[in-house]
Amino acid sequence: MILYTPLSMDDIFPEDEREYEKHKWINVEGKMMKVYDHNDGTVELTQMISTNPNDYLDTRYMPGSRLKL
User: Fold this and answer.
1) Model-level pTM?
2) What is the full DSSP assignment across the chain?
């Protein structure tokens, strides 16, 4: 079976189930964000879903950015 997707193979088939559990979806200022929990009070932004194109130009929400919860 061929799967056409913009996601990486590791996002679909994680090597370790515990690594997959560290990812979670949160809502920040009305934007849905997939983040990786670093267990030190910060999360790393890996994906954002928004209907506003200007949200993707905001440098605070670039992939790899650290957010404090």
Assistant:
1) 0.68
2) -----SS-HHHHS-SSHHHHHTEEEEEETTEEEEEEE-SSSEEEEEEEE-S-GGGGG-GGG-TT-EEE-
